[in-house]
Amino acid sequence: MAHAPDSPQLQAFAKEYGTDRDRFEKEASFCIHCGLCVRYCAEVKKKHAIGFINSGARREISFIPEIAAKECPDCKECFPLCPTSYLQAVYVLTEALAFPSSSSKSKPEE
User: Fold this and answer.
1) Whether residue 20 has pLDDT greater than 70
2) Which tens digit of pLDDT belongs to each residue from 41-64?
3) How many domains, in total, are found in the chain?
4) Residue 75 and residue 87 in one domain
5) Calpha distance 59→102 (Å, rounded)
6) Nearest to residue 91, comparing CAs of 76, 109, 105?
7) What is the residue range of 20's domain?
8) What span, in angstroms and rounded, lies between the C-alpha atoms of 81 and 36?
9) Which residue has the higher pLDDT, 108 or 93?
10) Whole-angstrom Cα distance, residue 48 to residue 70?
11) Strand pairing partners for 51?
12) What does the mean pLDDT of the chain come to?
């Protein structure tokens, strides 16, 4: 709850289990390492475009640029699974840095 206090899914769990969200110090939305996006991409889509890197406190979600540049622009089915919206932010950053030709295609021409 401290990492994603505004997440509707986490608020529902807090209510269901009688957790008081006020007892947690509010922080910005971060990945809560639920792994839903990683598992969905690997097990359902069989693309393996998302994975965990590092371990312990340094663990984070990462798109594999070589795969994500080909597979993700037309998919993005993992986005609604993310309870914190962190995944979308990581994707936009990865898209801008690692495969800029793809991000320029998605923007309307002026």
Assistant:
1) no
2) 999 999 999 999 998 878 889 999
3) 2
4) yes
5) 27
6) 76
7) 1-29
8) 6
9) 93
10) 12
11) 62
12) 80
Residue appearing with tokens 């998302």 = 50
Contact 88, 97 (CB under 8 A): no
Residue 99 tokens read as: 């495969």
Q: Pick from 52, 48, 110, 41: which is nearest to 81 by CA? A: 41
Write b or e for each residue in 31-44: b if 16 or more Cβ atoms lie within 10 A of its Cβ, otherwise e. Answer: bbeeeebbebbeee
Tell me, yes or no, whether 14 and 60 share the same domain: no
Token pair 């030709």 is at which residue? 101
Say if residue 2 is in the same domain as residue 53: no
Are 24 and 58 members of one domain? no
pLDDT at site 89: 83
Helix (H) or strand (E) holding 63: strand 60-63
For residue 109, what pLDDT is reported? 47
